[in-house]
Amino acid sequence: MPRVLGIDIPGRKRLEYALTYIYGLGLAKSREVIAKAGLDPAKKADDLTDEDITKIGAVIREGYVIEGDLRREITQNIRRLISINSYRGSRHRRGLPARGQRTKTNARSRKGPKRTVGAVRGKEARSAAKIAGR
After folding, report:
1. Which residues does the annotated region (Disordered) include (predicted)?
2. Domain 3-64 class?
3. CA distances from 113 to 24, 91, 93, 120 (A)
């Protein structure tokens, strides 16, 4: 497994796909990096020389925000939205979708698993609820 900027990339994959394992580099940016470094995208990551790895590292360092810096920047942007009390910030604070999706149904990945409200299931639970209601 070759290491590019401290991140292990899978060696058996083609270079253009292996670079997508770096947070902040997708397929399009990965291809840009390879073109700027002057390498063959079909080459396997294990076949890279130390010189190739330093070329890739230099290209990424000079033109892209990746890994920890990118995560920090995204977190700061969300914190800023929350602190200025914007609509999007309030959606982030409440853990709801921030980009206009419907929430009556769906949105389960943001809202978490369903919690049933109101209906009590089971005979024992119903009788306990009756007694508590009296």
Report:
1. 90-134
2. mainly alpha
3. 29, 18, 18, 18
Backbone angles phi, psi at 82, to 5 degrees: -65, -45
Q: What is the pTM of this model?
A: 0.73
SS (H, E, C) the chain: CCEECCEECCCCCEHHHHHHHCCCCCHHHHHHHHHHHCCCCCCEHHHCCHHHHHHHHHHHHHHCCCHHHHHHHHHHHHHHHHHCCCHHHHHHHHCCCCCCCCCCCCCHHHHCCCCCCCCCCCHHHHHHHHHHHC
Q: Domains of the chain: which residue ranges?
A: 3-64, 71-101
The per-residue pLDDT for range 18-40, each reduced to its tens digit, is 999 999 999 999 999 999 999 99
